[in-house]
Amino acid sequence: MTAMTAVDYFFTINQPALAELKDKESKFRAYLFPVKSEESFRGQLNFIKEQEFKARHHCWALILGEGADFQRSNDDGEPRNTAGAPILRALVSSGLTNIACVVVRYFGGSKLGVSGLIAAYGGSAELAIENSQKLKEVISQELTLSATYEHIALIERMIKIYGADVVAREQQERVTYTLLIRRSMVGEATDYVKKNHHITIHADS
Hints:
By secondary structure, the protein is an alpha+beta fold.
């Protein structure tokens, strides 16, 4: 049986985390939270802006996708690449995806300079990441199979072999199973079905 490999899962966080950092009287508050889409992120960003309406800047970074291939950041008025970029670097370095971080700044009266801003925004994000709990998300694919009642034991055996989760089971003239199988095992599972002619794999799988 194929062991779980890197293509089987990704890491995110299971709940929001918060961190604060102060530098020369400026206060930086980092909000780290899991997201499923850019739209859901925008909703959370607007909520934070409403809660932190007195803050001068609401800078952020966002990573989406199993391979962390969707990446965005925003400096929200800070000098270019001094806020969103260091926040994004912190997220990338963490190895997390489907995650966003918004860092709000309350200006304390003293300028921090480019290096100071980069350190403060990136450091705030890093602290929030340290305060979070990682969650492993297994990547699965759905398969729909059917067999006659006298051959459902073949599907039940397959479920045990590949550790599949049963999403649905429908009983009519044939018994139809909707399964979730780890992505790296889909090829082996499909070969198993092809060798057992009593099992039908449906085209939409």
